[in-house]
Amino acid sequence: MSYSFAVQSLLAVGTFSFTEDLTRLTVAILLGGAIGLEREWRGHWAGLRTHILVSMGCAIFVIAGIEMVGRDSESITRVIQGIASGIGFLGAGTILKLDQKQEIKGLTTAASIWLAASLGTAAGSGEYALSVAAVLASLFVLGVLGPIENAFERRQKARKERNNEAKNSDKSSQQE
Q1: How far apart (Å, rounded) are the C-alpha atoms in residues 125 and 134?
Q2: How far is residue 31's CA from residue 41's CA, in Å, rounded to a whole number?
Q3: Which pLDDT tens digit goes with each residue over 130-154?
Q4: pTM of this structure
């Protein structure tokens, strides 16, 4: 048996399935990559590769579940529930409490990992319109609202510093 005959036989068995699976995986990779690229661009811990792998992995779970039990089964919802809870452990690893103050880092990164999982799940289910709309909305949230949020945080920090300086000057004038 020649190599080309083996490949042709393999593709002939499930040509539609193969191309559909490849399309779903490609969409999951592109969408996870879009989120990962934004996170990489901004220098966050979980970047391009992490988001692609999470999205692709979730798509694989969904595609495999559909292939095993069919689309109309409640088993697929259990696969999705497993993804949603399991990915939380990966996201939790990105969250750090930095000091005794209320300073926590990594929440947006954890949320973006969870989002990449949902994008992969939607793409794996063949819900292309949902997954593309979701990635566009999430890029707006991360790319546009992020800098706005940072501006508010800087303003709030400056206000706290001015209040602390005022309190310190009041204390020093009372001691004199």
Answers
A1: 14
A2: 15
A3: 999 999 999 999 989 988 988 998 9
A4: 0.76
Structure tokens at 176: 């004199």
Highest mean pLDDT among 50-59, 86-95, 167-176: 50-59
Distance of CA 12 to the CA centre of its chain: 35
Instruction: Say if CB 112 and CB 83 are below 8 A apart.
Output: no
By C-alpha distance, which of 37, 64, 63, 65 is closest to 51? 37
Can you list the alpha helix ranges (DSSP code H) found in 42-127?
48-69, 74-92, 107-124
Which residue has 């566009």 as its token pair?
136
User: Minimal CA–CA distance to 91: which of 121, 111, 117?
Assistant: 111
State whether residue 96 is helix, strand or coil: strand
Angstrom distance (rounded) from CA 74 to CA 122? 16
